[in-house]
Amino acid sequence: MRALTWQGRHDVRVETVPDPEIVNPRDAIIRITSTAICGSDLHLYDGYIPTMRAGDILGHENMGEVVEVGAKSPLKKGQRVVIPFTVSCGDCFFCKKQQYSACDNANPATTSDMSETLYGYPMGAALGYAHLTGGYAGGQAEYLRVPYSDVGPIVIPDGLEDDKVLFLSDILPTGWMAAENAEIEEGDTVAVWGCGPVGLFAIQSALIMGAHKVIAIDHYAARLDLAKRLGAEILDYREVDVREALFEMTGGIGPDACIDCVGMESHGLGIDNLVDTAKAHTFLGTDRPAALRQAILACRKGGRVSVPGVYGGMADKFPIGAFMEKGLTLKTGQTHVQKYSQKLLEMIGEDKIDTTFLISHHASLEEGPSMYRHWHDDQDEYTKIVLKPGMERVAA
């Protein structure tokens, strides 16, 4: 089959690779009909995530048609399914608490040692995202092996096209959990850093949950415009002092909740971010948490900070004093996708959530390498890319 493979920093290629096979009775094989490039794929593209190997198949936002099942899979050939990016056994202590992204069994012992050393306990597993999280092949390909197909996939009813449901695989539940972790109350003011796909879904979710005002912060005009169309007030951090603006927009109190949808690769010309960038380029540091610092400092006393943005290493100059002295609550984590899939599918079916507004480009799988370049370099124009294996190549 054809698949989009990681070969090194800023080097992805479409290659012919072996077809996936059933290796466990709980497995299923799907023919990919839609697969998206995620913002966190850029951390792989930029070389920030360790344990990638040349030839690894990318892609953790996937859906398709079931074409083969193991003996213990409840799926049936011909069903359309969305696959959560989290790989979860359904049986362990964490899965039974619906903390699916913390599954203790899906990440094999052979690949979980490094995360246990880094984080104290082994990470859960994910599709298409480094050997740190199990080394499972991703779905930016013609076919995908789905482990634990009796736990993760959600069957899609007829009449709902791919674009409406594809993001149940990751970014929609991630935005929803980000808002849920912010513990939004009726009438709250919520500030959201980053208007990429997760940020936009966090904005939409916060408004559904009862936020009175959502303030979106970014510097890309097209993304800020999408946030504004959702109902957010917007701030371009290149044009204003964000903390000062938030202070004024909240009557001097500060936002009730702050959501960091940026993660480890913050942009900006603040002195702290310039120092972070220099350290990252000289291997003296890893993450660039400028957005998280700003969120903690801007949040009102007694407020909540939610962090769906991906971090991987150590955060320098973390404002622990402000965090403690203001009595903030911080919640974060990879998304427990399976916990939210059914509820969000029903909301999509009832037209309570729109998932299509942020898609800027559809492309063939063969165009994947150029789409990664655009996703990295042209973020104001490319707000979400959906790859369609089998789609005729249209770009140069």
Automatic annotation (TrEMBL):
Residues 25-153 form the Alcohol dehydrogenase-like N-terminal domain. Keywords: Metal-binding, Oxidoreductase, Zinc. It comes from the Bacteria. SUPFAM superfamilies: GroES-like (SSF50129), NAD(P)-binding Rossmann-fold domains (SSF51735). Gene3D superfamilies: Medium-chain alcohol dehydrogenases, catalytic domain (3.90.180.10), NAD(P)-binding Rossmann-like Domain (3.40.50.720). The keyword Cytoplasm does not apply. Residues 197-264 form the Alcohol dehydrogenase-like C-terminal domain. Its cofactor is Zn(2+). PROSITE patterns: ADH_ZINC. Transmembrane segments: none annotated. This is Glutathione-dependent formaldehyde dehydrogenase. It comes from Allosphingosinicella humi. The lineage of its organism: Bacteria, Pseudomonadati, Pseudomonadota, Alphaproteobacteria, Sphingomonadales.
